[in-house]
Hints:
- This protein is α+β, with helices and mostly antiparallel strands.
- The protein folds into 3 domains: 37-129, no CATH class; 134-225, Immunoglobulins (Immunoglobulin-like), CATH 2.60.40.10; 240-330, Immunoglobulin-like, CATH 2.60.40.
- The protein is built from 10 helices and 16 strands.
- The strands form 5 sheets. The chain has a 4-stranded antiparallel sheet.
- Strand 12 (268-275) and strand 13 (282-284) form a beta hairpin.
- Helix 2 (27-34) packs antiparallel against helix 3, helix 3 (39-52) packs antiparallel against helix 4 (58-66) and helix 6 (77-95) packs across helix 7.
- The longest helix has 19 residues, at 77-95.
- It is elongated and about 110 Å long.
- The mean pLDDT is 90.
Amino acid sequence: MLKASEGKAGAAETLRYFGSKLKPPTVSYQTALALLEEGDARLTELEALAGTHPDFGPLPWLISQEYSEARRGDQTLADQRSEKQWLEKFRAAQAAGKFQRYFLDKKDAQQWLDTADERWAKLASVPQKVLENPVTLSTLYGNSGWDVTFTLTDFKVTELFYRLDGKGDFRSTGHLPFTNPQTGLPKVNLHVPMPDLSSGRHTVEVKYVDRNGKTNGPYSLSFSTDEELLKQGKWALDSTPGSWLQFKDFDGKVLLYFSHLLSYTAVLKEIRYSLDSDKLDQSFKFKPGTKYGEHDRDEAIFLAVPPDIRYASVQVIYKDGTVSPLRRIVRPK
């Protein structure tokens, strides 16, 4: 009523006058006064009050509103995370009977509860793991070594930083020569080459700056080069089952090539095969590799087979002990 008739400045002046009569000032009075502040100052005072008066149930709801769509407009993930945390505290206060007892008008209190339920339902639809860890990474091994690509669920990021294995300072991934239409700023580069990455488990710490200028994180992401190499090798071989073996006629002989499989000795433990049967009773010898496409040049990559052969069956055992399906490669007529 004061704000409507006298404006914020007049309302604040009147409240301070009455506040001088309150010894000590009540938390309701302090909350009303804090609500007359603007922006960050209002939020800071409300959160300070919540810290010193944890049993005053209206405060968590009021603070949750500071992070809501109604106040922020287009929320960042940090806004959603904070709103949900304060709504959770509000729901706990309501369940403990620490909310409605501060209201003279129970209809007004019910409106707060209805709004809180609506916001909670919407925020609960966002997976908790997304709110808590909005950054993921994927790795790819190629001829030039390892590449790491980050994926962000917060699309309005303005800068991304990373640090490998806790060494040194965080480094910016930089920007691309394109504009992000959601921010109007250069797009953040999400791709980082790591050509000299050693074999084993690594941890990448990531933090980012959102459109509000707030730094989120760091978030810790762990991966193993051995596990990633195995996963990618399995995917590559599963995608090319018809190429595992290849028949070639050469100089009056029939040759059976294992060169495709030998490109993935980094993930293979054994190659089993059989001719014109599915017994898989023979093993093709090879030297284990550490990289894709790596095999000894002096190592045999084929064997001579009977000229009347019809097909060959093959199966591989991966380094983790898993076994591939049997693949039958038919000799072209």
